[in-house]
Structures are given as C-alpha cells and as structure tokens.
Protein: Argininosuccinate synthase
Organism: Corynebacterium stationis
Amino acid sequence: MNARVVLAYSGGLDTSVAIPYLAKMTGGDVVAVSLDLGQGGEDMESVRQRALDCGAVESIVIDAKDEFADEYCLPTIQANGMYMKQYPLVSAISRPLITKHLVQAAQEFGGTHVSHGCTGKGNDQVRFEVSFRALDPSLDIIAPARDYAWTRDKAIAFAEEIKLPIEQSASSPFSIDQNVWGRAVETGYLEDLWNAPTKDAYAYTEEPGLGNAPDEVVISFEKGKPVAIDGKQVTVLQAIEELNRRAGAQGVGRLDMVEDRLVGIKSREIYEAPGAITLIRAHEALEDVTLERELARYKRLTDARWSEEVYDGLWYSPLKRSLDAFIAESQEHVTGDIRLVLHAGQIIVNGRRSPQSLYDFSLATYDTGDAFDQTAAKGFVQLHGLSTQIANKRDRDGGFPTSANGQ
C-alpha cells in the first residue's frame, strides 16, 4: 500500500517545504489540512492553494473557530485554565482539535501517516502524538523537524533546490503560534533571559502606557459560560474576539515567563492573550461569589491539575475527562455579571451581581441590621484551634506524662 501522509499545514515556509520533502521521504502522497482558529492574517484560500502549489494531492481548510471557542476555550474558562498560574494554554488547547481533524482527514482520504512540524524540544510533539495515538493508533507518525533533523536553513536550501513557489525568508527572529485565544512568541533574542521584549514581539496588544482612557465592561455568564458583554448577547467566539479588541487596546494580557516544559527544560515564552485573561479573571470573580467555600477550595486544586493535564498533552486522558465532569458540575450556579475596568495593562474587578450569590449582606455587614450571631464565635474559635493548642503544649512541655498504667 502506498503511503499517504496527512500533514498539519500552517502555510508557512516549514510546512510548505514539508510537502515535497515528505513525498520524497515516503514515496507517497501528501494531504494538507489547515484549520482556521481565528489566527487572522493571511486569507485561508491562499493557504489552501499554496499547499496545492507545493505538491499536495489534496488541500483542506476547515473553519473551526466556533468549535474551538465552544469546545476548547470554554472549558478553559470554566477551569480557570492557567499553567503555572500564568499561561492560559494558548497552544495547548489547539493541538487536540487539530489532531482530531487530521485523524478524520486520514480516515476520509485513506491516510497511512500523520505529520506535524514540531521539534523534539517542545511540548507540541507530545500534544499531537499522544492525541493521535488516543484517537487512531493505527496511523504512523512523522515529525520531519525531529525525525530527520530538519532545520530552517535546510528547509530554505531544499526549497531553493526544487524551486518551490513560496517566499523563502528567514527574516523573522521569532517562532510564533497564534489563534483567537492568544499568541505565543519564542526564540531569537528572547532566548537570553535578560533581553526585554521589543515592540515587534507584540501584535494582539497595544503598549500599556499609551494613555488610553479606561474601558469599563460588564461580562455576563450563565452556568460559567460568557453570554453577553455590556448587555449584548454574544457567542463564546464573539466574547473572545470583542475582549481581544478592547482588552488588547489597553495592553491587557501580556505575559513574559519562564515555563517548565514537559520535556524537562525551562523555556522563556512571551504570550499575548487579552480576551482569554479577561474572561478567566471575570469568571474567577464570579466563582468567588457563587461557589460554596469548600467547593471553591477544592476547585482551585482541580483547576491547577486540569491545566497541567492539558499542558502535558493529555486532553483525551481519563483523568482529564473526570476533571471535566467535576468542573461542569461546579458551574451549575456560576451565573451573573462581573463589572471590570481595563486600563494600562491592568484588570480591576469593581462590581459583582448574581441571582445565585452566596453573599448575604445581613451576615456580612458590620452596621445596623447585622444578623450574624457573634456569641457563637467564641466557642467556634476555641474548638477550631484546640488541636493546635494541644500540640503546641506538648512541644513546649516535652511531652505529656503517661498515666499510672503506662497508657
């Protein structure tokens, strides 16, 4: 049986050169699959045609923006998904969706192999390949950059050798991945941790110090899902796009971090995620109002674990599915409005209201009308600290004497 490789195709130099290179290495055909995840930039029809011009036997473009927003971004909002308490999983949540469509294309077009452009140093190779094996382990996997030591200079030389009809430029100092949820920037001079990012590293956000007037926005949620902005009904995709625009104009959502990669190395990453950060911050503020204390405490633990599972490429794992079920149940009462101010790179929550609120004014107030029984507090405090009190007495006294019978 002749090989047929289904390639995750971005339209850039590396994956364009990969089409004839994979055909040469496998002796088979290449099917290019591109997903529109709201990344903007080039027209997707141009991307589709470029793959054909580079030798693909089929080139498919899938508009997956709403699917991405509803089935991948929304769970991330509800899980307050932040790896290392900072990174809103911009690339991590896109990989299982891309993988899903590559597997479907392989099944439709008789694919024997699937291919991605990731290196052996990064997390994305894991995210792609673990998902491939979870969905269809019969498919062989090829990663040219890793398996064939494929570098950018080799890609350019190969493109020139076969006169590939693409722009062969290595001028950009960065490696960039972006979608509607955010933008990830790495490599180049950023690999020196002392170098500050320059203006050209950013595209989704304005400089926070520009002096734009503060922007006050009200985000409405129903069961943990954003449904309106300033009273206007929106889809999840529209909510992300609107807040990308408004929060981005205020310089909100910039992140410069050194993260712990799954492969064991530390990597300096620059992220922009204005809509993502704003939605997660608003969602957290609403959970503060609507989740019971013990549920809220435990959910903070599961949110962190969910984020690690997704970051580590385990979107289809049993643990992640079980965490999904817990998180979905926790959202039953997360309904209401959060008012916040976007300004100079900051998000300031200054208003909360919910028909499911657990905030009781009569219990919280210190003024007339206070319904809290303060006489009950004295005994509560004594019992709450009793075990600590006993342990500290033992430690001060060097232990308690035993009874007469030695017990």
